[in-house]
């Protein structure tokens, strides 16, 4: 039942946001009483925390799965760094999480570090195979990527430029993999 409550909360959060969904909505969606919800969670904030934890676990599992797939380092790199999951998160929801639930937003840093370790391994493989230019240090590429991706989660920037996270990530992917100079 706990997992069903988390899933229902995820759906409610997608519709109404972190602050506006209610325990009543979750109970109604599941056809259970509020009392049943409170058997598993002490508060709405505890549900929000569980939803964020579940999302972070999915990101971690997606990273591990990408690392174990067939294919070369570049395919794994694209999947780990530029997965299409960001399209599902609207800017306004990110803004709400960052502004009103900073302790939950901080959990993204742990996943970022986890992914960063895998990216470093992939970049080292690319360097060993001769696919990455000799004059570029993998640690600098990793740092650039890490800081750039962190900056893309700034909802003010995204809103100011009319971008979704997915669109911004696609631009970063193109810059990292192909550079900024026109090809002739």
UniProtKB/TrEMBL annotation:
Pfam families: TetR_N
Domain of life where this protein originates: Bacteria
Keyword DNA-binding: yes
Record's signal peptide: none
Gene Ontology terms for molecular function: DNA binding
GO BP, sorted A to Z: regulation of DNA-templated transcription
DNA-binding region: 22-41
Span of domain HTH tetR-type: 1-59
Keyword annotations of the record: DNA-binding
Name of this protein: Transcriptional regulator, TetR family
Natural source organism: Desulforamulus putei DSM 12395
